[in-house]
Design goal:
Layout lengths: L2 H9 L7 E11 L9 E12 L4 E11 L3 H10 L1 H22 L11 E5 L4 E5 L17 H23 L12 H4 L1 H22 L5 H8 L3 H12 L8 E3 L8 E5 L5 E6 L6 E3 L2 H11 L2 H25 L9 H10 L1 H16 L8 H6 L16 H15 L2
Antiparallel strand pairs: 1-2, 2-3, 3-5, 4-5, 6-9, 7-8
Helix pairs in contact: 4-10, 6-7, 6-12, 9-12, 12-14
C-alpha cells in the first residue's frame, strides 16, 4: 500500500482525520519471527503533516495474510480474514455503541479498525503500543493479576455479545463451528500431531518413571481423542451460549500497566476464529494456554468466580433480559471441558512457551498433515516436566 492510498485511507479514519499529507512511510516487522502463525504483522510508521501545518509521527499496524500454499489454504478454508473484518466492522462497532448507550467508562476491549484492503489482503489497525499497551512476553506465562483482568474482560466481552444477540445484531448461525472442536484437519494437525511428538519426547528424555505414562498415551487413537473433544464441547440448546473470541491466549492480549507494573487495562487482538458456544470455551482456552500452571491450580475456583461475577454484572449493566447463568452453570461447563483443556495444555504449552523460533513450522504442519513441523527437542527441554507433568498425569487418569 503506497503513501497516496494511505493518505486517502487516513483521511476517512475517525482516529486521524487531521492528517493532510504523508512525508515519509516506513514499514518493519512488528513481531519477532515465530510470534504469529497465520499472519505477518507489520508496523507502519509515518511522518505526516497535520492540518495545522505541524509535523508529527504516527504509527499503525498492518496485518497481512501469510503466503505459502499451506498457510494460504488454511486461511482461505476457514475464511480467517473475512471473519476478522466482519467482527471489527460489525460486532465491535455495535459493542462500542452499546457502551456509549449505557455510559460504560471502562474502555473498549479492542483496538480501532482503520481499513481493509481486499486486493492486498491487508488489515490496517490502531497501533496499541503507541498508547502504552504491550503483550506479556510469550515465554513467561501470565501471573494472577493479569489473569484476573483478562477474565474480567472476557466477562464483559461475552455479556456485550449476548446483549447484541438479544437485539438481533448477532446470529448464532452466522459463525462457523469452532475449528478446535469440529474441524478434523485442525484437530489432527494442531492437537493430535503435537500429542504424538510429546509422546516421542517422553520416551526419549523423560526417564523411566514416565515410560508407563507414555505407553498409555500411545494407545489412544486419533478417533478417541477427537470424539472426546467434540463431546465435551458440544453443549445442548439449554446452555447459555454467546459469541466467543475463539483465540484468546497470551499473544492475542495487550495490557497497559501502572507505574508499579500492575495491569490496569486490556485489549483483545486477532478476531479470526469467532464462534458461537458456551463462554466456558473461551475461559478454558485462556486458562490452559496462557497463565502459569501453578496459578491455575491454586486459584481456579476464585478465577472462575471472578469471571462469573463479571459476566452476570455486565449482563445486568447492559440491560440483558434473558436467563443469566448461575455459578453452578459455569462450573459445570468448565468441568465438561477439563479433558479439552488438559489435552490442549500438555501438547501445545511447551511450543507456546519455548524461546525457540523453530518450535512449530505452521506451513510444514499442514503440508504434511501433521507428520512433520513440530520440533521434538521442545518436549525434551529442561523444565518441561515441571511445567506440564501434573496435568499430564491427570490426563492419563481421564483415560482410565
Amino acid at each position: 500500500m503506497d503513501k497516496e492510498i494511505f493518505e486517502v485511507v487516513l483521511s476517512k479514519s475517525s482516529q486521524d482525520p487531521k492528517i493532510k499529507r504523508i512525508i515519509e512511510m516506513r514499514t518493519e516487522p512488528a513481531l519477532p519471527k515465530g510470534e504469529n502463525y497465520t499472519s505477518t504483522i507489520l508496523k507502519i510508521t509515518l511522518k505526516v503533516v497535520l492540518g495545522n501545518g505541524r509535523v508529527a509521527t504516527k504509527s499503525f499496524i498492518a496485518k497481512k495474510e501469510n503466503t505459502g500454499e499451506a498457510a494460504e489454504q488454511f486461511s482461505n478454508d476457514l475464511s480467517l480474514f473475512t471473519a476478522e473484518v466482519s467482527v471489527y466492522t460489525n460486532i465491535l462497532r455495535e459493542m462500542e455503541y452499546l457502551m456509549e448507550e449505557f455510559g460504560d467508562t471502562e474502555g473498549p476491549l479492542w483496538c480501532e479498525f482503520i481499513h481493509y484492503s481486499r486486493a492486498d489482503s491487508i488489515i490496517i489497525l490502531e497501533d496499541l503500543k503507541a498508547s502504552g499497551f504491550n503483550t506479556v512476553k510469550r515465554t513467561e506465562p501470565q501471573d494472577l493479576d493479569h489473569a484476573r483482568l483478562a477474565l474480567r474482560s472476557f466477562g464483559r466481552y461475552h455479556a456485550m455479545a449476548k446483549v447484541l444477540e438479544e437485539r438481533g445484531l448477532i446470529s448464532k448461525d452466522g459463525y462457523k463451528p469452532y475449528i478446535f472442536l469440529n474441524d478434523e484437519v485442525c484437530i489432527r494437525n494442531l492437537l493430535y500431531a503435537p500429542f504424538q511428538t510429546l509422546i516421542k519426547g517422553m520416551r526419549k528424555s523423560w526417564g523411566e518413571e514416565w515410560a508407563e505414562y507414555a505407553e498409555k498415551l500411545s494407545r489412544v487413537s486419533f478417533e478417541e481423542l477427537s470424539k472426546r473433544t467434540k463431546d465435551g464441547g458440544n453443549f445442548d440448546d439449554n446452555t447459555f451460549k454467546c459469541l466467543n473470541h475463539g483465540d484468546g491466549w497470551n499473544n492475542n492480549m495487550m495490557f497497559k500497566h501502572d507505574w508499579e507494573g500492575r495491569p490496569v487495562e486490556m485489549r483483545f487482538v486477532d478476531f479470526q476464529v469467532p464462534h458461537y458456544n458456551s463462554p466456558c470455551m473461551d475461559v478454558t482456552y485462556y486458562l490452559y494456554s496462557s497463565i502459569n500452571p501453578s496459578v491455575r491450580h491454586q486459584n481456579l475456583k476464585s478465577l472462575i468466580e471472578l469471571y462469573h461475577e463479571s459476566l452476570t454484572s455486565s449482563l445486568e449493566r447492559f440491560g440483558y433480559k434473558g436467563y443469566k447463568p448461575s455459578l453452578e452453570d459455569i462450573n459445570n461447563g468448565m468441568e465438561r471441558l477439563v479433558f479439552y483443556g488438559t489435552w490442549f495444555f500438555t501438547t501445545t504449552f511447551p511450543c507456546l512457551l519455548t524461546a525457540r523460533t523453530d518450535a512449530m513450522d505452521f506451513g510444514l504442519i499442514f503440508k504434511t498433515n501433521g507428520e512433520e513441523g513440530y520440533n521434538l527437542s521442545v518436549y525434551c527441554e529442561d523444565g518441561v516436566i515441571e511445567m506440564i507433568g501434573d496435568d499430564l498425569k491427570a490426563l492419563v487418569k481421564l483415560f482410565d
